[in-house]
Each structure stands twice: as C-alpha cells, then as structure tokens.
Amino acid sequence: MADPLAPINPASGTKAGSEGASFVLDIGGTWTRASCWPLSAEEPIRMVRTPSRTNHPETPADQLIDQLVDLIVSMAPATKGSKVAISLGAALDHDRGVVYGSAPLWGDSATDVPISARLNARVPNVQWVVKNDVTAMLAAYRAVHSELDASKIAVVTVSSGIAARYDDPSSRIMPTDPAGLQGEIGHLPAVTNDLHLECACGVSDHVAAFASGPGIRAVAGAIAMRADPDVLAVSAVVLSPEEFERTFAAALDADDPFAHSVLREAVNPIADVFTYLLTTQPDIERIVMAGGVIESIGVHYRRAVLRRMRHRGVYHTSSSHPAWLESVIVLARSPQETSPLVGAAILAGADARRATWIQ
Ligand SMILES: [Zn+2]
Question: Among residues 1, 61, 52, which one has the least CA distance to residue 28?
Fold first, then answer.
C-alpha cells in the first residue's frame, strides 16, 4: 500500500504543480489542519482550533462563520492563480459550494452559507475548491486501495459528527439527492429504548446524538443517572467534558463494566444504520469506519457495533454468516489512510487519474 502522506510523484501523471492545489485545509468541528501541497515531512501540518460551536458553544453562528472565513484566508497563501483545496466537515452542495449546515461547526443554524462565494469575494485571485470532508476521506481511501476499484465501499466518519459516503465504482460518480447531498446518516432517526437525547442539530434522537463523540458522553451522563451505584463507584470514567474522552478510552481498555455498557447503548443507532445499508445494498463490500472517535476507541467501537448487528442485524444473514459482517465492517488502519487533506487535494485535481472521480 502506498503511503497516502507521501508527496505525489509528478512523474506518475500528477498535475499537482500546474493544475492541482498548492495548499490544503481540513476543517473539522474541533481542529483545522493546514499544509502546503504536496505534503512534506519537512513542513509539519499546522493545527489550530476551529472557531466552531464545538469549541465556542456560546458564540452565535454568524460570528463563527465570519471567524472561519477569516481563519481560512489567514492560513492560505493568497498567491495569484493558485488553487486551495478545502475539506469541510459540513453538509454541502459540492456543485454550488453552498453549506447547508454543520452541527459541530454551527449548531442548529439552518442558514445556507455560500462558502466558496465568500472566499472568492475575499481573495478573488485564488481558486477555492471546497469539498465535504467525508467525500475527501473516501477519495483518499480509494487512492490507496486500487484492489477495490471495482468494489462498492462506504467510508463512515465518527467524530464530533457522523456521516458516510459511497460512490459508484463503475461510473466513479458519487450519487447525490436533489440537494447535492448524500450520506448524512448522523441525522437519521435513531430507534432507542427509553433513552432520548437531543442532536446538536436541534432535533431529538438522531444517530449522532448517541454514537458521535459528544453523543457517547451524553449517553454516559444519562446512564450514570440510573446506573447501579456499585458499578458506578468503581468506574474510572469521569463525566466532565475535559476528562471524559481520556478516561473513557482507558476504562474501555480496562474492561470497565460501566464504560462498556455506555458504548453498547451509544453504538446501537449506527449499527442499525449499517444493518439498513447492508439489507438494501448487500453488494457493499466494505464499510470503513474512521475519524477521531475511531482513532481513540475504534477496536471497542467496532466490537460493540458487531455485537449489536449479531443480535439485531441483517435478517437471517447476521446469524448465519457472522464472518460476512466481520469482513465488511472494518476500521481505517491509520488516520492517513482516510486523510481529508489528501482527499481534498485529489478531488481538486492533484491526481489526474482521479480527477473525474466526483462530479
Ligand atoms: Zn441531527
């Protein structure tokens, strides 16, 4: 497997120098990463906190949007004629460069944000290419898995939000709905028992309200209210926002019963989404889970998903062919394998062979 972070070789058909992006950004709910392209070991990827609802819960959405545009303009070089590729963690219409919303970035704000137009207005001499982050992750994964060129695969990110993407391997086109969207599975209704949580988008009982990073902490808080005091007393999980992520991961590693009960409850809705996907599209050969939560607790997360799917999964097949589920539901092997920075550069033309990958 090629190293996706290795600089792409111009001799192999890449047009990075002439037609591709010279700078890439990946904007997530928590962090913004930026680098010159091609990536280079000599030049570390810059990381700054994103001006987002996740990081600044009290700041109004319109101010966060202004601050984000300011941040992008301040980080990207304004070299005349250059191209900047941006991977954005938001639901957006790729054709028009319009963002419909992003719970991690802007909470429940439903105002359309013409991000490409706003960047063009600020720095018209630069060509701004804005793509969804999961679309970019799928592009990066495709680029290092040529053995799957003929296979239908889906990439799912589990971080401050949740989303999925799949493409049509025969046409190389990513199907979209009339709004130019696909795979916003984090905002699908979650079938839950007696636990009800509000999604960051403002609607109750969405998948991300349970199975995302913030969702898992919300589930932990709700379960702690009704947990056996003896189990809770011996748990190493600390529920405060500052301590939860670290202590939860360590508790899972230590077979903490409370931590595992939380994770089982939290992943049920996303496991059900995978069940629906595989029930209606059994030709999906691989569902690749990636993102911040997976980097932290991926092995436990996958195990909990498979457990749910074995008990309440694809009718008949989950129990008769458990090895099939194990082969389809996989983890990204490293963050680089689904790097949004790499994917954004590819989608912006860094690799001519992939330039028609998305319309
Ligand atoms: Zn939602």
Answer: 52
